[in-house]
Amino acid sequence: MVETRELDNAEAREATESLRAALGEAGIVFPSLGVDEASFGPGLVNLGRVRADIASRLADVIRRGSAA
After folding, report:
1. From the centroid of its chain, how far is CA 67?
2. Which helix H or strand E contains 21, and what residues bound it?
3. CA distance 12 to 23
4. Averaged over 52-68, what is the pLDDT?
5. Per-residue b/e over 1-29, b at no fewer than 16 CB within 10 Å?
6. Enclosing H/E stretch for 52
7. Residue 33 · residue 16 · CB < 8 Å
8. How far apart are alpha carbons 28 and 21 in whole angstroms?
9. Cβ distance 31 to 51 under 8 Å?
10. Mean pLDDT over all residues of the chain?
């Protein structure tokens, strides 16, 4: 069970770093972005709390990317 949890968290860490890099390329920072180490089951990425202006910028980036 511990090995599975470690693998899930490893996948979540990889996804977190990938998301952090992609957000950084768009000039967006999620200060609380990280892995939820206490979660059970599939590894979870905690997006945390962000200011409304940052959430709006993220929405704009996603919309532009969807349109491309």
Report:
1. 22
2. helix 2-25
3. 16
4. 91
5. eeeeeeebbeebeeebeeebeebeeeebe
6. helix 52-67
7. yes
8. 9
9. no
10. 87
d(CA 27, CA 29): 7
Report in angstroms the alpha-carbon separations of 49 from 29, 34, 52, 66: 11, 11, 9, 24
Residue pointed to by tokens 């899930």: 8
AA letter at 3: E
> Taking the model in full, what pTM does it have?
0.79
Arithmetic mean of pLDDT, 35-58: 89
Q: In whole angstroms, what is the distance from residue 5 CA to residue 1 CA?
A: 6
Amino acid at 8: D
Reduced to 3 states (helix: H, G, I; strand: E, B; else coil), residue 26 is coil
